[in-house]
């Protein structure tokens, strides 16, 4: 705060750009002599009138708060607003506050001493008491490098435009990066979707091919089975044509391997076909009579030997119509059913022996030849 004590009267007038007094005093008093040096101090400065009081700053710079605020706004506007150069210059005038030339104040002249052109302009503006504030803004405008209407203002505008261009460029780069990332994500998703669809199509095609192959295999197997069945039927038909049942109008009373005490071996060694006495006994296949005659417990027996060495025994016959060494054909009668030997009733006891002499099941053998027994 400035001192409230009355300050002594000091010579106060107008000064030129070199700091020398000219003409009448600023307050209407006579100018001091040229050889008198005026060095204002805190005690000699005239008290400020009105609201615009000069305050003491820590750096030794006393400035009107209104002037300082307007200067800061002007500096910020000139340095940061790119459109400042397009606006017309506004003259700033303040009421007479009784301030001296800004260049003559201690500590202030040094701020504007570097640029004599700007200092001279400020001194010329300070000649009019109403334009003190406008002249006082020149150093701030010089420091901010944004004097309206000059090259420095154009430089500030260019700097603002450059900053704006850099910001827009960064925004465009960020947008381009975001777009590229979005496109990459979309392309990746599309590629994954296409790969999944291709995999699904491939799996479907493989499953279809596998099903078709399986169906074809089953079809082929069915055809092969049908062909095999047909061939077997043809073979059996041929065999049936070449083989005949040993007798007719019969009833199976005992089968091969059946156990019982009435058989000397402990089990039945042949197939018993019960039929009335005198029923013809026929050759099951063409062959040669190996033997014909009495055979103990078998009664009258005829042994028929086939071409492959298999022997068929006809036992318990009531009579025989062939003799040993005789050749017979399929279905030819070789004897008649009877009850001779160890029997309980008239029947044909049929046995089948392999070339090695072992007995086998006559029922299975007959059925294997295509006969229905």
TrEMBL record:
Residues 1-45 are annotated as: Disordered. Residues 267-357 form the M23ase beta-sheet core domain. Residues 168-236 form a coiled coil. Keywords: Coiled coil. One of its GO terms (molecular function) is metalloendopeptidase activity. The keyword Coiled coil applies. This is Peptidase.
């Amino acid at each position: 705060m400035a001192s409230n004590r009355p300050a002594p009267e000091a010579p106060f007038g107008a000064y030129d750009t070199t700091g020398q007094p000219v003409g009448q005093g600023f307050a209407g008093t006579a100018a001091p002599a040229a050889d008198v040096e005026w060095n204002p101090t805190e005690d000699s400065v005239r008290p400020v009138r009105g609201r615009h009081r000069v305050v003491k700053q820590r750096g030794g710079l006393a400035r009107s708060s209104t002037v300082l605020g307007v200067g800061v706004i002007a500096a910020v506007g000139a340095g940061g607003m790119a459109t400042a150069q397009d606006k017309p210059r506004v003259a700033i005038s303040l009421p007479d506050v009784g301030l001296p030339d800004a260049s003559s104040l201690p500590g202030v002249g040094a701020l504007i001493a570097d640029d004599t052109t700007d200092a001279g302009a400020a001194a010329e503006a300070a000649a009019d008491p109403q334009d003190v504030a406008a002249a006082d803004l020149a150093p701030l405008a010089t420091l901010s490098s944004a004097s309206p209407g000059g090259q420095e203002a154009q430089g500030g505008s260019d700097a603002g435009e450059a900053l704006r261009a850099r910001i827009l460029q960064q925004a465009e780069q960020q947008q381009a990066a975001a777009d590229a990332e979005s496109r990459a994500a979309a392309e990746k998703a599309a590629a994954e979707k296409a790969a999944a669809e291709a995999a699904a199509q491939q799996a479907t095609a493989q499953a279809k091919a596998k099903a078709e192959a399986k169906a074809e295999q089953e079809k082929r197997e069915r055809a092969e089975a049908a062909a095999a069945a047909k061939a077997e039927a043809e073979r059996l038909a041929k065999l049936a044509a070449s083989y005949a049942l040993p007798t007719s109008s019969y009833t199976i009373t005992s089968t091969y391997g059946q156990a019982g005490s009435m058989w000397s071996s402990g089990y039945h060694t042949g197939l018993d076909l019960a039929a009335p006495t005198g029923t013809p006994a026929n050759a099951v296949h063409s062959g040669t009579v190996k033997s014909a005659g009495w055979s103990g417990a078998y009664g009258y027996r005829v042994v028929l030997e086939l071409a492959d060495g298999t022997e068929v025994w006809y036992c318990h016959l009531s009579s025989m119509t062939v003799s040993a060494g005789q050749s017979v054909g399929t279905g030819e009668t070789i004897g008649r059913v009877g009850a001779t030997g160890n029997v309980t009733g008239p029947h044909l006891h049929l046995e089948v022996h392999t070339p090695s002499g072992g007995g086998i099941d006559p029922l299975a053998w007959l059925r294997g030849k295509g006969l229905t027994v």
